[in-house]
Amino acid sequence: MQPWQFFVLAGLGCATAVTFLIRGQGVMAVLLVSLLMATTTLVGIAALRALRPLVSDHEDRSTVIGERTRAALEQEKANTLRTIKELEFDRAMAKMSEADFNEMSVRLRARAARLMKQLDAGTGYRPKIEADLLKRLGNAGESKASTHAERACPKCSTPNDTDARFCKNCGERLS
Q1: For residues 12 and 20, is the Cβ–Cβ distance under 8 A?
Q2: Could you give the dihedral angle defined by the CA atoms of residues 94, 104, 83 and 50, in that order, rounded to the nearest 10 degrees?
Q3: Which H/E stretch holds residue 33?
Q4: Is 37 in contact with 18 (CB distance < 8 Å)?
Q5: Other CB atoms within 10 Å distance of the CB of residue 50
């Protein structure tokens, strides 16, 4: 059972008990007490969501699913790093105090580190990218992949990439 489910069940139980106790008081009293119980439940859930990250040791390493999420994380990381640069510029121009700079810098650097950890958690894309590349290239990609062993340099026998035109070791033109 999740902690938030406890608050919902406790709120429903309290509302039922109070409704049973004041059943002779009229409809308005029952509605007001039910509203009070619902509000108490929502406040409890909000307090749980606010305090849980502060007391739990759970590291925020959500998996990156899909290109859209990865792109959003990359954009957020770029924005955070840009904000750090602007903050350092403002401090250099004496637009903020050292205490304010330290406070904001620590928060932004922690955010950037968390974003980088999330992006690193989504590694392992190379096989997917290569499969997608072969799929997009179609038959041309298959023929190039099969000739990978034939792309050795005739002069120095260094293996080169399939799309290389010159040897990466000696610079000889590949045929």
Answers
A1: no
A2: -160
A3: helix 27-55
A4: yes
A5: 9
131 torsion bin: left (phi>0), alpha (psi -120 to 50), beta (else) = alpha
Cα torsion at 29, 30, 31, 32 (round to 10°)? 50
Q: What is the pLDDT along the chain (175 residues), one digit of tens a residue?
A: 677 788 778 877 877 787 777 777 777 877 787 788 888 888 888 888 888 877 776 655 555 455 567 788 889 999 999 999 999 999 999 999 999 999 999 999 999 988 888 777 766 666 777 788 888 887 554 544 444 445 788 888 888 888 888 888 888 888 7
Strand (E) or helix (H) holding 77: helix 66-92
Question: Nearest-CA neighbor of 83 among 116, 114, 105?
Answer: 105
Q: What is the pTM of this model?
A: 0.37
**Residues 80, 108: contact at Cβ < 8 Å?**
yes
Would you give the DSSP letter of residue 6? H
Rg (CA), the chain: 30
